Write a sequence for this structure.
């Protein structure tokens, strides 16, 4: 078997809360994602989904266990990684073109080449003609496209996505999902996509991983054997989709209820 | 239907603007006119309280005949020079230190308490020390202005650096930015909102520093005019200098507002009633 693109070996992550107590976000998490695989992670609120991505990206370090990317332990922020954040993380003071060109410019690509590549990527995400706008002048969906182009321009072999479309309305979200799949098909990077929307997870992914209510650990993993290319808006009516949805929801439901019960008793 | 509503709304807004302007001017007329009147009928002694018309005459005299310290424009320029130099040095030092301490935790832990102490002492008394150290000329006034400006800018730059969206920093780092690139291209632009807000008060502080410095001991400047007027029991001279200082300060404020508009053009326009 080839080396997995991403591997978490019994990863545990503890944070220190402001009061000084230790808070365990992830416990003994085991996860393996093959190169080119599209892996979705679902789980209830506060189960450490985002923490998982921080560990893979190198923004945070594991407390115990190991995180390997392409077989090597993660030390600091890796080169071949792209990250799409839940909230807008585009730079509000840069133009659309400046935002997309930021990655290559940070990495020392000559300005002319970086601008040319940025224009090319803006065309691919359908934002030609918006180069000089500032992010606040764009709709939510357009800002997501900028963020997507900003990440993909670095040609990452691993793309980490933290509920990237959760702030969008339902229609825009499924359009963005289709566009994401089309772009993903071009270079097939390894994707870890975090969402709380099970439908979105199944429609996009090759593998759906269910995490338990915090501290998060893997409860179950499901292979999604729906044919590609997929149409996100239509795939949800297929019997195989519905059947899979039921199976995963069976697994997820208890965790969601447990997490919800905690929020109501804590409050 | 909407057009009718718009038209009446626009009409109401225009009427409101006229009423506000009229009331605004009448406040000025009542205060200045009342002052003039009270000193003329003898309710207020012009020897102590001055008189608006005499203040105007004083300014005219200064413009025409010059002041005791030399031509008026020289005095204005001297004070302005001190304030501008102090402002520039204080702003740059404040930004550099604020961002450095905001970015490097160790530095802020070492220097934090000292800065709090320095900030809590009334820095204006340092003016006396600076005159002893640096003499009656320009450097002592600049030093006082720097000290006043520095802290205002420093605390804003520090806070602005601390409040930078962590997502933006994380995004920049993943996109490949080095620590220096994060500072210049993420931290500085996002702290700029805070820093520019501090510039509005800072130029006022720079003027205060220059004028108090001159007041404490100088051979030229608007502060000297005030202290001479005080020495000769001439309230009109004090008020005249105040008017000139106010004009300078308002002009500077206008320039800073312009700078703000240019530097922060990326921000969404503020929502206001007229645009909604």
């Amino acid at each position: 078997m080839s080396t997995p693109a991403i591997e978490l070996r019994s990863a545990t992550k503890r944070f220190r809360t402001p009061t000084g107590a230790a808070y365990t976000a992830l416990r003994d998490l085991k996860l393996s994602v093959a190169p080119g695989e599209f892996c979705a992670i679902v789980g209830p609120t506060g189960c450490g989904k985002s923490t998982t991505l921080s560990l893979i990206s190198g923004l945070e370090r594991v407390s115990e266990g190991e995180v390997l990317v392409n077989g090597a332990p993660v030390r600091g922020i890796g080169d071949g990684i792209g990250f799409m954040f839940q909230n807008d993380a585009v730079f509000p003071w840069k133009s659309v073109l400046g935002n997309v060109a930021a990655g290559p410019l940070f990495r020392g690509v000559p300005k002319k080449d970086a601008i040319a590549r940025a224009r090319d990527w803006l065309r691919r995400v359908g934002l030609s003609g918006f180069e000089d706008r500032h992010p606040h002048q764009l709709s939510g969906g357009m800002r997501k496209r900028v963020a997507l182009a900003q990440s993909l321009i670095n040609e990452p072999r691993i793309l980490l996505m933290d509920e990237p479309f959760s702030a969008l309305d339902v229609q825009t979200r499924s359009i963005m999902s289709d566009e994401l799949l089309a772009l993903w098909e071009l270079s097939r990077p390894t994707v870890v996509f975090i969402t709380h929307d099970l439908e979105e997870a199944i429609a996009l992914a090759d593998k759906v991983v269910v995490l338990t209510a915090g501290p998060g650990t893997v409860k179950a993993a499901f292979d999604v054997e729906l044919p590609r290319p997929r149409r996100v808006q239509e795939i949800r009516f297929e019997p195989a989709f519905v059947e899979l949805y039921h199976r995963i929801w069976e697994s997820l439901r208890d965790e969601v209820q447990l997490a919800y019960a905690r929020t109501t008793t804590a409050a | 239907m909407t057009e009718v509503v718009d038209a009446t709304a626009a009409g109401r807004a225009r009427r409101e603007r006229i009423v506000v302007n009229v009331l605004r001017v009448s406040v000025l007329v009542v205060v200045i006119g009342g002052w003039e009147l009270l000193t003329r009928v003898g309710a207020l002694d012009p020897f102590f309280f001055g008189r608006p018309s005499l203040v105007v005459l004083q300014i005219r005299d200064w413009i025409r005949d010059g002041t005791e310290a030399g031509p008026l424009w020289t005095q204005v320029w001297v004070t302005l020079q001190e304030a501008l130099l102090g402002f520039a040095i204080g702003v740059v030092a404040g930004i550099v230190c604020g961002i450095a301490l905001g970015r490097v935790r160790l530095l802020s832990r070492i220097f934090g308490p000292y800065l709090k102490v320095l900030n809590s002492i009334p820095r204006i008394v340092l003016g006396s020390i600076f005159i002893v150290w640096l003499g009656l000329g320009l450097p002592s006034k600049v030093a006082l202005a720097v000290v006043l400006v520095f802290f205002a800018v420093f605390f804003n730059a520090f806070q602005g650096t601390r409040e930078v969206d962590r997502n933006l920093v994380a995004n920049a780092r993943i996109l490949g930015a080095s620590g220096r690139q994060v500072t210049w291209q993420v931290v500085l632009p996002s702290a700029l909102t805070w820093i520019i807000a501090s510039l509005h008060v800072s130029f006022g502080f720079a003027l205060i520093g220059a004028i108090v410095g001159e007041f404490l001991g100088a051979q030229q400047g608007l502060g000297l005019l005030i202290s001479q007027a005080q020495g000769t029991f001439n309230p009109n001279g004090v008020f005249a200098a105040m008017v000139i200082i106010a004009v300078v300060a308002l002009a500077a404020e206008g320039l800073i507002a312009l700078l703000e508009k240019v530097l922060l053009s990326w921000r969404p326009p503020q929502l206001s009633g007229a645009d909604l």
In short: The CA atoms of residues 55 and 61 of chain A lie 6 Å apart. Chain A is about 40% helix and 25% strand.
